[in-house]
């Protein structure tokens, strides 16, 4: 009975952890582990510490029940750690950033009364955005991007270009040296990945090639 109760406690803790992690990720792009999530790790540690004393059985099967509980706890802790440190194959980070930019573009467009000044703000905003991405990639010139990094950057670069063009940024500004460097680097990274992993499965259809055709 104690073994079954321990198993149930561990499984409920894992379910609560998964739910808490999803709610935390939904609040924004930046993920910071909350105190309740850390407490759930402590619950599992305590369960493992106490299971040998609770899940005992006299005779040959004395170790059977608490050993099973220990194994379950190890698996669950491993899954929880993976949930925190692993990058998912989706585009949540990129989409969150794109949404943030679009919302603030609309705010500036509505609140700044001088159209010429608004356009200067957008020009500068675009330039500094692509410059920051270019510097980040330049610092990693000798490193091949992980597929998650590549997907995220392609999405951000393409949507940044498209959205600022819709806001009236001129083509001469859009095609500044930083953007050209970004475009060339990401195109090379995409081609390299295509050689290592033929087909579109790795990038799930994300590509630098179809900037104008891609849906929002």
From TrEMBL:
Stretch forming the signal peptide: none
Domain MUN: 1-87, 119-164
UniProt feature coiled coil, ranges: none
GO cellular component, one term: presynapse
One GO term of the biological process aspect: synaptic vesicle exocytosis
Superkingdom in the source lineage: Eukaryota
Classification via PANTHER family: CALCIUM-DEPENDENT SECRETION ACTIVATOR, CALCIUM-DEPENDENT SECRETION ACTIVATOR 2
The protein's name: MUN domain-containing protein
Source organism per UniProt: Muraenolepis orangiensis (Patagonian moray cod)
Lineage, broadest ranks: Eukaryota, Metazoa, Chordata, Craniata, Vertebrata
